[in-house]
From TrEMBL:
InterPro entries: Carbonic_anhydrase, Carbonic_anhydrase_sf. Keywords: Metal-binding, Zinc. Belongs to the beta-class carbonic anhydrase family. The keyword Metal-binding applies. The keyword Isomerase does not apply. It holds the Pfam family Pro_CA. This is Carbonic anhydrase. Its cofactor is Zn(2+). It comes from Methylocapsa polymorpha.
Length: 193
């Protein structure tokens, strides 16, 4: 079965037992938001105990505090009433495996897939590639805990983020399923009003 058919079939089963979820309100009932990585091993609904309607989950590569992630967080608070935010990165993140130079170099060679081995990244496409990768900040990182601190700091000091929202900094351990606090991040993210 193709992925498309699998997804549509799964959705049919989901909708068949949709029940009371039709009555859910738009604003998240538990009034919090999580910014986390898109990594397929992470399921925020499971690792943080969420049901439909509970919380906002904002995901991107790395769970980074990009301008667009901050856009979502500001909407989450200003228009939809969340009161606490989490930044949750994770161990073994793919964002630690490359940097802006590597990514833009690969994209210049071709737009097709690349693979990694002990000697680094290799592009297998035929090209042409594009220089447009040079104009994007890919938000990679080397140090996991430092990346959480950096993002909490960036959100905390953003002019559109009010001082009364606590921002908690954690990472998810892909080997144990546990959330591990980054105390320096949580300290930086403390609400100050
Ligand atoms: Zn990741």
């Amino acid at each position: 079965m193709s992925v498309l058919l699998e997804v549509l079939k799964a959705n049919e089963a989901y909708a068949a037992s949709f029940g009371d979820k039709a009555k859910l309100a738009l604003p998240p009932a538990r009034r919090f938001a999580i910014l986390t990585c898109m990594d397929a091993r992470l399921d925020p609904a499971k690792y943080a105990g969420l049901s439909e309607g509970d919380a906002h989950v904002i995901r991107n590569a790395g769970g980074r505090a990009s301008d667009d992630a901050i856009r979502s967080l500001v909407i989450s608070y200003k228009l939809l009433g969340t009161k606490e935010w989490f930044v949750i990165h994770h161990s073994d993140c793919g964002m630690q495996l490359f940097d802006d130079e590597i990514m833009s170099g690969l994209l210049e060679k071709s737009l097709e897939g690349a693979t990694i081995d002990e000697t680094g990244w290799h592009d297998h496409g035929h090209g042409p590639g594009s220089v447009h990768g040079r104009y994007i900040k890919w938000h990679t990182f080397k140090d996991l805990a430092a990346s959480v601190v950096e993002d909490v700091k960036r959100i905390r000091s953003h002019p559109l983020v009010p001082a009364n929202i606590p921002i908690y900094g954690y990472y998810y351990d892909v080997k144990s399923g546990r959330l591990v606090e980054v105390p320096e991040a949580t300290a930086v993210g403390r609400a100050t009003a």
